[in-house]
Specification:
Layout (H helix, E strand, L loop, with lengths): L7 E5 L1 E5 L2 E5 L2 H9 L4 E5 L8 H7 L2 E4 L24 H16 L4 E4 L1 H9 L4 E2 L19 H4 L4 E5 L4 H6 L3 E4 L6 E2 L6 E6 L5 E6 L6 E4 L11 H21 L1
Parallel strand pairs: 1-4, 1-5, 5-6, 6-13
Antiparallel strand pairs: 2-3, 7-10, 8-9, 8-11, 11-12, 12-13
Length: 253
């Protein structure tokens, strides 16, 4: 029997065309945060769409991190047409993640969604998205500034208010904290079975959990992987996720 095995966290890859060839890629900042903040072993999963063997993936997984991406969830998954054809889509990733999310929650595999991953979880549970938050009445512009400086793109720009008595409030020990903001889309209709955990000042939902989940099942719209070791609220999320992954290891031994 293996004791104290390092948890394995799956990261669904983006399907990306680089030059003449397609690649399966994942952002270094997510991989690094899994290692340094969740104390887990990241394993990048190719975006094979409907060809992915979900049952086999869940046999391997002690946790799943759904990372952010350049692409958006295809709006056909929430019964809308594409609003802006210039924005990138990733049908292969949709075909993997939208099947994986519900199966993972049912199998009691811890799940953390970030940005696109947050939106994927909402869509997987039957919710819909604003395809352009900044063009929605009453909403602020949540996109990052047009600058090559990453420190400016990922700077903390607005507060989020956690829901009293919620999981995120308990996890972070805070009713309000600052976050970065790098997204053009966001939750419109909340998915069935999801619970809002935090809101932006304009009322946009910024965090959700899965009601009744038997383990960690949380997603956030901002990017807690950025400077995670130096940002207490961000670190608290990854520590809680990592602890849930380690608990799954113990149960499986």
């Amino acid at each position: 029997m293996m004791q104290n095995r390092t948890p394995v966290v799956l990261l669904p890859a983006d399907s990306r065309q680089l030059g003449d060839h397609p690649f399966h890629v994942a952002g270094h900042k997510y991989v690094k945060a899994v290692v340094q903040a969740a104390h887990a072993l990241p394993l990048i999963v190719p975006a094979l769409g409907s060809e992915s063997d979900i049952a086999a993936l869940l046999e391997v997984a002690d946790g799943i991190l759904l990372p952010g991406a350049v692409s958006n969830v295809h709006p056909s998954h929430f019964d809308q047409d594409v609003r802006d054809p210039s924005l990138p889509l990733d049908p292969a990733r949709d075909g993997l993640t939208l099947r994986l999310i519900r199966a993972a929650v049912d199998a009691r595999v811890p799940v953390l969604g970030i940005c696109r991953g947050f939106q994927e979880i909402n869509v997987a549970f039957g919710g819909s998205l604003h395809q352009a938050v900044h063009e929605t009445a009453g909403m602020a512009d949540h996109r990052e500034p047009d600058t090559p400086e990453l420190e400016q793109q990922y700077a903390q720009v607005h507060t989020v208010r956690t829901v009293a008595g919620g999981q995120l409030a308990a996890m972070t020990g805070s009713s309000e904290f600052m976050v970065n903001s790098l997204h053009g889309q966001g939750i419109d209709r909340l998915g069935a079975g999801l619970v809002a955990e935090a809101y932006a000042p304009d009322g946009l939902i910024e965090a959700v959990s899965v009601a009744g989940a038997k383990t960690f099942a949380l997603a956030v719209q901002w990017h807690p992987e950025w400077d995670v070791l130096n940002t207490p609220a961000y670190l608290a999320i990854f520590r809680a996720f990592g602890a849930a992954c380690q608990a799954r290891v113990v149960k499986r031994n």
